[in-house]
């Protein structure tokens, strides 16, 4: 229950990581480290990167991509979160902007932020990690800016992600954050066995990409198995401002693996993205903390 310690042999075997279990679920998580961490790019929050999560019957996450590079924007696994950049538009060229869970980043010449670019990190603050048998707590302290904390906890057949953001600076912190999820139920290819369900009827907000996927009532279904290189995706509408709409289920009807994802605040935006190896309902929520104040939010995953 103190700071995590790793042997030289464990470090030599790969990036810093830890395993937790409560008997029903077992998870392996990568730990943030600017020198040896599994993920060192700037799109996603460095905390709580889940390499794998398994029950006694099913697996839910894994490596969905072919090419790995620790500084590539999407070389990451599991339900990982990305905060929208703060202050990019108003920063001068060569100035700095903020991405929570990463730190202060250098602004290049481009006028608009590019989520698929890895930026120079000016200050990633101080990361610390504590753990117990079935939980891990990550804390990032960025002096004069914020204290961000994320706890991953296994409770029966659930994984609970608790977040807090305390503003230690002089300006308000206002952003949106989404969880990319990267579901890989039993490592099966995306196709007719897979279904994604919502408590509302999703409709395309703009273009819907991918003829293999279909919005049918309150579900997203697939007419055929996605070949490598194919994408089914689009921004969605149809949700309300009620918290109850943040309630998704992803199921593989062939293997019986199912996960339900529930948030504790309303959806601000909703994107859906899927390829042959992974399916990702991406719900954005607003995070806001005035100077000296703290914001808290939670996502709960139930695995069957």
Characterize the structure shown.
The protein has 304 residues and is mostly beta strands. 2% of the residues lie in helices and 43% in strands. The strands form four sheets. Strands 8-9-10-11-22-19-18-13-16-15 form a ten-stranded antiparallel sheet, with no helix packed on it. Strands 4-12-21-20-17-14 form a six-stranded antiparallel sheet, with no helix packed on it. A three-stranded antiparallel sheet has the order 1-2-3, with no helix packed on it. The radius of gyration is 19 Å and the shape is globular. It starts with 7 loop residues before the first helix and ends with a strand. The N terminus is likely disordered.
Note the beta-strand portion. 35-45%
The percent range for helix content is: under 10%
Shape: globular
List the helices and strands in order: HEEEEEEEEEEEEEEEEEEEEEE
Uncertain runs are 1-12
Largest sheet: 10 strands, antiparallel
In spatial order, strands of the major sheet run 8-9-10-11-22-19-18-13-16-15
Structural class: mainly beta
List how many beta strands DSSP finds: 22
Q: Cα distance, first to last residue?
A: 28 Å
What is the count of helical runs?
A: 1
Radius of gyration: 19 Å
Question: If you average the pLDDT, what whole number results?
Answer: 95
């Amino acid at each position: 229950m103190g700071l995590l310690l790793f042997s030289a042999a464990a470090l030599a075997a790969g990036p810093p990581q830890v395993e937790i279990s409560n008997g029903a679920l077992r998870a392996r998580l990568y730990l943030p480290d600017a020198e040896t961490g599994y993920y060192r790019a700037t799109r996603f929050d460095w905390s709580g990167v889940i390499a794998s999560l398994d029950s006694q019957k099913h697996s839910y996450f894994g490596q969905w991509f072919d090419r790995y590079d620790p500084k590539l924007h999407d070389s990451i696994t599991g339900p990982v979160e990305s905060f929208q950049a703060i202050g990019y538009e108003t920063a001068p060229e060569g100035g700095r902007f903020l991405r929570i869970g990463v730190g202060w980043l250098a602004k290049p010449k481009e006028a608009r932020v590019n989520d698929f670019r890895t930026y120079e990190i000016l200050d990633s603050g101080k990361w610390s990690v504590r753990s117990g048998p079935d939980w891990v707590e990550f804390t990032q302290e960025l002096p004069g800016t914020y204290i961000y904390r994320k706890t991953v906890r296994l409770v029966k057949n659930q994984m609970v992600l608790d977040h807090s953001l305390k503003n230690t600076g002089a300006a308000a912190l206002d952003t949106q954050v989404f969880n990319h999820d990267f579901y890989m139920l039993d490592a099966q290819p995306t196709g007719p066995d897979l279904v994604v369900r919502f408590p509302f009827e999703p409709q395309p907000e703009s273009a819907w990409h991918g003829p293999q996927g279909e919005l049918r009532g309150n579900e997203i279904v697939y007419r055929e198995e996605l070949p490598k290189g194919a994408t089914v995706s689009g921004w969605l509408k149809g949700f309300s401002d009620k918290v109850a709409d943040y309630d998704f289920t992803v199921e593989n009807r062939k293997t019986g693996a199912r996960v339900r994802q529930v948030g504790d605040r309303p959806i601000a935006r909703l994107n859906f993205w899927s390829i042959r190896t992974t399916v990702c309902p991406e719900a954005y929520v607003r995070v806001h903390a005035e100077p000296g104040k703290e914001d808290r939010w939670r996502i709960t995953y139930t695995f069957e």
